[in-house]
């Protein structure tokens, strides 16, 4: 039997590594409650190895035998670089230096996709649409340090996460107002990708573009400042920025829902979606999503939810760790053993 089809031994350290924050927990066994630890910032540790060795293992009540790490970026080779963080994950080093017998590395939005089937309705805030079709494909996306995207399909009795880098797709103007604003959006190598708008830095990018289009001096430099001013309606540039952000997020989510035919629902994850929930519910987001002629009627029936659980990705990884046979997680080329 290949290692890709062998059970990952418990206790299992699980980790959700983003561009800014790293979240860790331990799943002690197939039925035990998840043991979580304080969130750490990636900038405070030179490596993931150091973060685990200093912030997790000394305070853990059990010693993990294995690790399942979800990280923001594509998994490729023995040295895995994060897209928006200086950390490099080296599974063989984790095995040699920290004593793990088994290390699996996944994309962070695979973990978010797994969370969709692990969370209850009390951790979901609905934004329109009808009822989800049972076992139909689902879509997860979330603006954060970057823009994460993943699909989730059901086949042969198992949920199969489909990782991708959809946050780097092109995004362009559509309305007359868009054509006034978009020329002022900072480009990356000559193009505007989703992350240039639909992320924390993208929100600032968009705010500056709206201000420049109107000949106004920007007042804010931080995503949190723009969010507060936009939601309180104390600054008209920030108000329009949040509306445009919601519209562009809706359009992008709608495009991806068409790709996956996501009649099982669309799920928005991450801290930004939670923080701007009032802006997402004011109509611009849903209109951007639904406006996909000739499929508007069909799109309007797709339910959209904001995931409100603060540790959703860890809950997804924990569900997989406890019941690995229920999920079709491909580990070939992404699993290392001692």
From TrEMBL:
<dbReference type="GO" id="GO:0005829">
    <property type="term" value="C:cytosol"/>
</dbReference>
<dbReference type="InterPro" id="IPR050201">
    <property type="entry name" value="Bacterial_glucokinase"/>
</dbReference>
<dbReference type="GO" id="GO:0004340">
    <property type="term" value="F:glucokinase activity"/>
</dbReference>
<keyword id="KW-0963">Cytoplasm</keyword>
<feature type="binding site">
    <location>
        <begin position="15"/>
        <end position="20"/>
    </location>
    <ligand>
        <name>ATP</name>
    </ligand>
</feature>
<keyword id="KW-0808">Transferase</keyword>
<dbReference type="GO" id="GO:0005524">
    <property type="term" value="F:ATP binding"/>
</dbReference>
<protein>
    <recommendedName>
        <fullName>Glucokinase</fullName>
        <ecNumber>2.7.1.2</ecNumber>
    </recommendedName>
</protein>
<dbReference type="GO" id="GO:0005536">
    <property type="term" value="F:D-glucose binding"/>
</dbReference>
<keyword id="KW-0547">Nucleotide-binding</keyword>
<comment type="similarity">
    <text>Belongs to the bacterial glucokinase family.</text>
</comment>
<keyword id="KW-0067">ATP-binding</keyword>
<keyword id="KW-0324">Glycolysis</keyword>
<dbReference type="Pfam" id="PF02685">
    <property type="entry name" value="Glucokinase"/>
</dbReference>
<dbReference type="GO" id="GO:0006096">
    <property type="term" value="P:glycolytic process"/>
</dbReference>
<dbReference type="InterPro" id="IPR003836">
    <property type="entry name" value="Glucokinase"/>
</dbReference>
<dbReference type="InterPro" id="IPR043129">
    <property type="entry name" value="ATPase_NBD"/>
</dbReference>
<keyword id="KW-0418">Kinase</keyword>
């Amino acid at each position: 039997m290949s290692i890709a089809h062998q059970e990952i031994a418990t206790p299992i350290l699980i980790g959700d590594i983003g561009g800014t924050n790293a979240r860790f927990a331990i799943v002690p066994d197939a039925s035990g409650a998840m043991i979580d630890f304080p969130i750490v910032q990636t900038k405070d540790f030179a490596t993931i190895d150091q973060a685990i060795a200093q912030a997790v293992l000394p305070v853990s009540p059990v010693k993990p035998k294995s690790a399942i790490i979800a990280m923001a970026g594509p998994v490729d080779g023995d040295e895995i670089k994060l897209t928006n963080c200086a950390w490099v994950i080296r599974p063989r080093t984790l095995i040699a230096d920290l004593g793990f017998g088994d290390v699996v590395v996944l994309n962070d939005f695979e973990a978010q996709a797994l969370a969709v089937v692990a969370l209850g309705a009390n951790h979901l805030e609905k934004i329109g649409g009808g009822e989800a079709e049972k076992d139909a494909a689902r879509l997860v996306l979330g603006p954060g340090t970057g823009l994460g995207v993943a699909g989730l399909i059901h086949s042969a009795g198992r949920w199969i996460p489909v990782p991708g880098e959809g946050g780097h797709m092109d995004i362009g103007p559509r309305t007359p107002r868009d054509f006034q604003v978009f020329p002022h959006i900072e480009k990356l190598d000559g193009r505007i990708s989703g992350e240039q708008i639909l992320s924390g830095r993208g929100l600032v990018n968009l705010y500056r573009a709206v201000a420049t289009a109107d000949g106004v001096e920007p007042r804010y430099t931080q995503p949190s400042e723009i969010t507060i001013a936009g939601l309180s309606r104390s600054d008209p540039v920030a108000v329009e920025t949040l509306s445009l952000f919601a519209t562009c997020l809706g359009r992008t989510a709608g495009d991806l829902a068409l790709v996956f035919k996501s009649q099982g629902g669309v799920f928005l994850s991450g801290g930004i979606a939670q923080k701007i929930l009032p802006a997402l519910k004011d109509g611009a987001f849903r209109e951007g999503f639904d406006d996909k002629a000739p499929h508007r009627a069909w799109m309007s029936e797709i339910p959209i939810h904001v995931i409100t659980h603060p540790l959703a990705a860890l809950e997804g990884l924990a569900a997989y760790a406890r019941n690995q046979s229920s999920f079709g997680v491909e580990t070939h080329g992404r699993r290392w053993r001692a």
